Amino acid sequence: MVETVKDTRNHTVKTSNSDNGKSTDVSARKKALLLGRMLGLSSEDDYRPSSASIAERSSFRAQKLASQYQSNLETIYKIAISQTPSDVTGVDLDPDWAHQFFQLAEQIHNRKMQELWGRILASEITSPGNFSLRTLTTLKQLTHKEAQILEKALGMSVLVNNESRLKLIIGFKHASGLGHFFKKPTQTNIGLSQFGLPYSNILTLVEAGILHRSELETGILSSKTPISFALSGIKLKLTPKSGQLFFSYYRFTPIGDELTQLIRYKTDVNYIKALKEVFAQDFRID
Known about the structure:
Blueprint: H1 28-34, H2 54-83, H3 95-105, H4 111-126, H5 133-141, H6 144-154, E1 159-160, E2 167-174, E3 186-189, H7 199-207, E4 216-217, E5 227-231, E6 234-240, E7 245-251, H8 254-259, H9 269-279, E8 283-285
Antiparallel strand pairs: 1-5, 2-3, 2-7, 4-7, 5-6, 6-8
Helix pairs in contact: 2-4, 3-5, 6-7
């Protein structure tokens, strides 16, 4: 026989109205007991788990889960409707894409992540083909915390010259010239960790399939050709002071490129300032 989940210990539980902006302070045991609701082990209305068979408890939990999934889909759908323009011609979604989308989307519980899924649906109705099923699968596995890491990384990424794909520039190297042919190039790093993006966060994006694992390098930059950087609407022009410099960077995967269309980000002004200071050593900046 299963007993109804109750907190029988004398714990102090502090709660507050979420409307007034204050947080809720609940003991770890209370948090654990609250998970019983997800398993159908808490009494609700006329339902008493202590008097129900395991088959009845399983059926009750399935009903709760189905209701939650339906609620998730309806929330995402409402967000999509609010994001869909009425003055643009829409298209019919690919049936297989739509089926997979709704199967994945129903399991998205976090409100911020639901907003992303709503924007995807709205985007596909107006301009289909931007988000693959592979990207949707990755997005479903992405936690809100990982989405915040991606947002931070995008705020430090740049469009170089006329390229359409963002690069996460981590610094530059000096090839040392022909006279030092066998010397290892010297590396100058920007120091992304001081702006909230430590190497562990980069590894998180790599493991999520958003960044390529390997650090990449550009070819040798010409001292006669300026390079343009575009960061969230801010444009910089960098001209190498010598002909032995090249950038090192991380590149987003195709899935990462698709996800960048969803995340709303902005560049930290302090990061821009630090970027200029680092590159001023070996670049003229306009």
